[in-house]
Amino acid sequence: MAISFELIKTDPETGARLGRLTTPHGVVDTPVFMPVGTQATVKTMTPEEVYDLGGRIILSNTYHLYLRPGHELIREAGGLHRFMHWDGPILTDSGGFQVFSLAALRKISDEGVMFQSHIDGSKHLFTPEKVADIEGVIGSDIAMVFDECAPYPCSYEDAVKAHERTVHWATRTRDHLAQIGSDQAFFGIVQGSVVRELREASARALVELDFPGYGIGGLSVGEPKPLMYDALDWTVPLLPPEKPRYLMGVGSPDCVLEAVARGVDMFDCVLPTRMARHGAVFTTTGRLNLRNAKNALDFGPLDPGCGCYTCRHFSRAYMHHMFKTGEILGLRLATIHNLRFLLDLTERIREALAENRFAFLKTQYMEAYLTGG
User: Fold this and answer.
1) Are 1 and 212 contacting, i.e. CB atoms less than 8 angstroms apart?
2) Which of 266, 133, 128 has the alpha carbon at shortest distance from 209?
3) How far apart are CA 285 and CA 298, in angstroms?
4) DSSP letter at 200?
5) Residues 260, 264, 270, 271: what is their CA dihedral angle, to the nearest 10 degrees?
6) Enclosing H/E stretch for 255
7) pLDDT tens digits for range 161-187
8) Which helix (H) or strand (E) holds 27?
9) What is the four-CA torsion angle of 63, 64, 67, 71, rounded to 10 degrees?
10) Annotation says 147 is catalytic
11) Taking a C-beta distance cutoff of 8 angstroms, is the pair 19, 244 a contact?
């Protein structure tokens, strides 16, 4: 196997898991948050800075890299690790979500998806086999199978179609990998919208295909958080305990804690970098909008409990000034803080799991985050 996963401990109170994921480019302790480098960069950060913040595995996106700069150029560069100067593990999303959310026009069939690029309108066909081949060229340590992500809300019929097509495409991906002799680690993706019978059917069907890990997709797409937690409650118990579980596209602190408590091991989200570009940051007492006038005379750090570079050296007043004047440094400093905040949270979670105090950490943290202190 291209990867291996060791389940070190399971919290008896909650089901949260402490684990270790071994990949061709390094070992990753779980639970883990993966900074998103959609287009071969974590926005405003150098690879060394991401590592120094605590990042050990990053995510890139097949759809975006295929369109620009193109997977053949990445092949010529010697693979994505060398192209972007990142020596650690990389996970690539299949691009399924982007095809359905960004493409101007698309036609879905059992064969695949014909779509127009959101960049120049050019037409492209993604099939499960083609996506697997592209991810093979990119050279990611973990690759996600091509799936159909049902939007929220959607009809029951559309949810059924997305679930069935995702399983069909996952089967084709598995067969294609066997045919070409690939040992790249591909994760199946559980779909099924917020319908219990579909989530359970999807999980069971994908487990039968015996992938080395499983993504939980189609959540955090607009549904209320309680529905997302319900979907996790239905799905996670059906996934093999000896394999990693990855909740796709989720990264707010409260959702991470709730998902860890349900046995999820891996997370990614554009939220920390996207929030930073819009002048918002995480704090232990909730989200802080740096553009608000109340910060103009606040000379305290973004978060008193944070030890990141930004909090050690700059005040809320300075950051307010950065965003009011449109200075690029503000984007970098806010990104440093937000990434470190989530990476620090998962470090604290791992420490709490090792010391049998995760339930206490979750209760204490959630009370401060959701109530403002």
Assistant:
1) yes
2) 128
3) 16
4) H
5) -20
6) helix 253-260
7) 999 999 999 999 999 999 999 999 999
8) strand 26-30
9) -80
10) no
11) yes
Query: Quick one: pLDDT at residue 242?
Result: 98
Identify the pLDDT of residue 220.
Answer: 95
- Beta-carbon neighbour count of residue 46 at 10 Å? 12
The answer to whether the CB of 236 falls within 8 A of the CB of 246 is no
Q: Are 310 and 45 in contact (CB under 8 A)?
A: no
pLDDT digits (tens, 9 = 90+) for 239-293: 999 999 999 999 999 999 999 999 999 999 999 999 999 999 999 999 999 999 9
> What residue type is 292 in one-letter code?
N
The one catalytic residue in 93, 141, 303, 344 is 93
Nearest alpha carbon to residue 3 among 244, 346, 249: 244
Q: Cα(250)–Cα(220) distance, rounded to whole angstroms?
A: 6
What DSSP assignment string belongs to 257-324? Answer: HHHHTTT--EEE-SHHHHHHHTTEEEETTEEEETTSGGGTT--S-S-TT--SHHHHH--HHHHHHHHH
What are the structural domains, with CATH classification, of the chain?
4-269 (3.20.20.105), 281-371 (no CATH)
Q: List, as one string, the DSSP characters of 346-358.
A: HHHHHHHHHTT-H
C-alpha triplet 320, 325, 326: angle, nearest 5°: 100
Report how far Cα 277 is from the mean position of its chain's Cα atoms.
Answer: 18
Strand order in the sheet with 123-126: 106-108, 113-116, 123-126
Expressed in angstroms, the distance from the first to the final Cα of the chain is: 46
Give Cβ neighbours of residue 179 (< 8 Å, ≥ 6 apart).
Answer: none
Distance CA 45, CA 85 (A): 12
Given 147, 265, 268, 303, which residue is catalytic?
268
Q: Model-level pTM?
A: 0.97
DSSP character string of 140-193: -SEEEPP-----SS--HHHHHHHHHHHHHHHHHHHHHHHHHT---EEEEEE--T
Structure tokens at 32: 């883990």
Q: Provide, rounded to the nearest whole percent, the portion of the chain with pLDDT above 90.
A: 94
